[in-house]
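Thread: sanity check for a docking pose with magnesium ion

Original post by kr_44:
Hi all, I'm comparing my docking run against an independent structure prediction. Below are the sequence and the ligand SMILES. Could someone generate the full complex and paste the structure tokens? I mainly care about where the ligand ends up relative to the chain.
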Amino acid sequence: MNRATVIATYSRRMRVRLDDGSEVDARIKGKRLKPVCGDDVIAVPLSEEDDWLITAVEERRNELTRPNTRGKVEILAANLDYLLVVAAAEPAADWFIVDRYLCAAELMKIDAGVVFNKIDVNADAAAAAAELDTYRRAGYDAVACSALSGDGIDEVRRLLVGHRSIIVGQSGVGKSSIINCLLGGDLQKTSAVSDKSREGRHTTVNSIMLSLPGGGEIIDSPGVRDYAPALESAVAAAQGFREFREQARHCRFANCRHLREPGCAVKDKVEHGGISARRYESYKRIVNLTEQLTEGRY
Ligand SMILES: Nc1nc2c(ncn2[C@@H]2O[C@H](COP(=O)(O)OP(=O)(O)O)[C@@H](O)[C@H]2O)c(=O)[nH]1
Ligand SMILES: [Mg+2]
Ligand SMILES: [Zn+2]
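Reply from moderator J.T.:
Ran it for you. Here is the predicted complex with magnesium ion included:
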């Protein structure tokens, strides 16, 4: 019996890292267990085959979830310390998606940062810089970079040292390219090892956790579609906006939703420019989406 950490998932097969640092392939005992990347598990070697068997999943510190195509909640990864959201010059940055991910990070109670990638591409650099500044003022790390030229990548690296992070964002923004940059040549090595033993079966990686040379680990989910996690309630949405929290204590009503309530200190601060109006719009959109979901009209 060994304690192990799940470092890659291929539908029902996994790659796990044992406590001694070695990596083995594993399958899952029964149908009930659903390990994800980042999970601590119990794994036992099997005498008849090369695969190990995962017999238990330890309690999770947190999980990152999103709704799948059938409206069910799917767990992307577990036991995370940091969420890195990537937007880019192309495809055009969708800051609402960024806000939804940051909201998820707040609810998981983990720190988060925003990266604007592809600064080598001719785009509205001033607009991107202004958005990054909004995030910085709200209390998030914010970095502009180019995975192509390497500009800003050292700053990204510094955000990730010592953490287990997940990198998220619209497809095509350069998540895998940024990881490649951070790893140097190591990425190819890791995927080759994982794919070799599979001989063409289960070669679609759901997600993979990579060790960074300077310390820290990062999870990439190649299949992540464009939408961000769903929230359970409108109240949760307000908790998801870091810069609202301190202000919300001054609202007239303790259960203020910061929408049409009188004496709302959050709205007041938005009107006076202390909270970004765009972030407040994101908040209202998230509340709307959440209410539609809860009412089953989604
Ligand atoms: N010009 C430019 N292209 C980039 C940059 N980073 C990634 N790309 C390109 O953007 C495309 C999508 O990158 P990829 O890393 O696969 O994005 P992912 O879907 O978020 O993992 C690829 O064609 C990359 O070569 C960058 O900083 N500048
Ligand atoms: Mg990718
Ligand atoms: Zn309020």
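The first strand starts at residue 2 and ends at 10. Hope that helps with the comparison, let us know if your pose agrees.
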